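cron nightly-structures :: item 1 of 1
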Amino acid sequence: MGKKQKKVTIKLRVLVEKINSLTLAASIIISFLTGLFLYNNFYNGLREIKALASLKSQVATKMVDMEAWEKVNQQKNQKERGLDNWEIEHLPF
């Protein structure tokens, strides 16, 4: 190999090394930006959906007739209360 070919080979090697380092840097930056995009648009979206689903389960979606509900609730409470003071007053034991 002549001197001219050696110089050309060295210049090409340096150029390839620069291109490789630029390619590596570009790949790292693109990977970071892709991860940032996915985090902002995908992961946060899923987290918001989970929060909305949990809130939806806590909120009544139908209108309730409060008077009817109170009437039913009172009847249920009377059944649960049982005989009240009757047991205390009339039991011989």
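cron nightly-structures :: done
The longest helix spans residues 3-58.
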